[in-house]
Amino acid sequence: MNRLQRTLAKLDGLPAPLRGVARNFALRRAVPFTGTASLDFVALSPESSEIRIANQRPVQNHIKGVHAAAMSLLAETATGMVVGMNVRDDCLPLCKSLQVNFKRRATGGLVAKAHLTAAQRFAMANETKGEVTVAVTVTDEAGIEPIQCEFVWAWVPKETSKSKPQA
């Protein structure tokens, strides 16, 4: 169990109605931009994540839909969270590349669902560095996929104070 899993496990002791609020508070504080966009962390596990964004004024484009950058943020956060649930504490997750193809106009809010395979999770637990392509699906309120995405995440060893050059 890594640091993110341990942090979220502490919230399991809260009454059910408070868990989602507490999870959103903790994760939005850890990654402030997710709070700016008011992302809703619906479900997180080592296997998958589900994150929502409402079609509200702060994330809208000029045609009153969810902005392209906000859609990308949603997909990046979903993939990053599932990676974060698996990366070892001595490693740092990094988004290596992303590709977002905009297919059609979105209707209403969006939900992103990302998942890792058992083989990907095994590699993250047992290798000091590597990379994975994380599957993610983004759907709108009409059940349509307005974007198709591919995110490649890497993990590398964290630098320690011993390995940093002295000034």
TrEMBL record:
Entries under Pfam families matching the protein: DUF4442
InterPro entries reported in the protein's UniProt record: DUF4442, HotDog_dom_sf
Protein name listed in UniProt: DUF4442 domain-containing protein
